[in-house]
Amino acid sequence: MNIAPGKNAVGNIPFDEARVDRLMEEAGIDVLLATSKHNTQYLLGGYKFIFFAAMDAIGHSRYLPIVVYEKGGPDHAAYIGNRMEGGEHQNNPFWTPTLHAACWGTLDAANLAVEHLQKIGKAGARIGIEPGFLPSDAYTLIRKALPDARPIDATGMLESMRAIKTDAELEKLRTASELITESMLATIAGAREGTTKSEIIERLRREETNRGIHFEYCLLTLGSSHNRAASPQAWKQGEVLSIDSGGNYHGYIGDLCRMGILGEPDAELEDLLAEVETVQQAAFSKVKAGILGGDMISHAEGVLKASKVAAYTDFFAHGMGLITHEAPFLMTNHPVTYEGTYAAKPLEKNMVLSVETTMLHPTRGFIKLEDTVAVTDTGYVMFGDRGRGWNRGATA
User: Fold this and answer.
1) Is the pLDDT at 38 greater than 90, yes or no?
2) Is 226 exposed, middle or buried (0-12, 13-18, 19+ CB in 10 A)?
3) If we measure between CA atoms, which residue out of 187, 323, 339, 208 comes closest to residue 259?
């Protein structure tokens, strides 16, 4: 399917066009070739093709969606997708004036992208690409076909584009967090003595799925162990449970951690979780539009350093959205490998953060809270804020 520019009016552009144009100008990019699932989804207003939602490979190649967007030229925008996406367009038309629902692999998609760039007069332009999400065969084809073009890494520009959430995005993140919290609390309440880690993880998968969440993962510990992988280990009376889960709602990620206990927590456990909560609250106290991201990090780390559990406890914060670690990037290589480039920048309204404090206690086990907060002008709003204390497992 090929809908030529000029024959259809530009649809409602689902992102802040002026902001994206400004970011492209700052990055020295004339035209974007977005090829990752998350950035094509963002630029298409939330659309992701269901057939390839959980896979990429097909036949001898893989699915490669491409959104072409020219700075200041939305009438030249195009979406290049799989042949089956023509039906998606018939039911819910894409906003881009040009649609090529014609591809089965990387090379036919890249060829169509080249043809479109030539057609709109951008064969020699500065082309923003995603190196981590552009297969080598497609990249090689584009470079040979457009020898005068200058490829520019658009990764940082696209990350900045997604950093400030719209109200609709915030609502999806809130819903994801709320439903994951509900699922974790139901899972803890349904587990009993003898329930294995594998059974608890499977219960959580079903709880999330039944609530309309796409289950991504569950990291689970029982007792004094710090091992979060699935196993036949069974929950025993008096033991702690930590349950850390990520799932997505319409593509937006919820990622939280809550604690469980089989029986009643003793004084030491109450005290240990309170230490974790103190660090979390220290971080929250510095979340506000205009405050440097690094100031929030250093304040929380300072409170942790003064804590009696500092030797075996870690603090971490990162951005959340369409992927689990995105802008704002606040810490360097801790633990995910990237630079904390936003530490020296002010937090902005509608940024979303995951804030987590993790204790690897030498005898009591893995004790952690992870929360999701959205930055506001006056502070923050927390998503999925229930169950932050000790949640009891089933007694019989």
Assistant:
1) yes
2) middle
3) 187
Q: What is the enclosing helix (H) or strand (E) of 75?
A: strand 73-82
Ranges of beta strands (E only) in 250-326 are: 252-261, 313-319
Reported as a single tens digit per residue, the pLDDT across 150-189 is: 999 999 999 999 999 999 999 999 999 999 999 999 999 9
Task: Copy the structure tokens of residue 152.
Answer: 């520019």
Measured in degrees and rounded to the nearest 5, phi and psi for residue 359 equal -110, 125
CA-only gyration radius of the chain, Å: 23
Spatial distance between the Cα atoms of 194 and 177, rounded to a whole number of angstroms: 29
**57: nearest Cα among 94, 85, 82:** 82
Give Cα 243 to chain centroid, integer Å: 19
Neighbours of 111 (CB within 10 A): 18
* pTM: predicted TM-score of the whole model, two decimal places: 0.93
Phi and psi (nearest 5°) for 82? -75, 155
Residue in the structure block whose two tokens are 């569950």 = 218
Numbers of helices and strands, H then E, in the chain:
10, 16
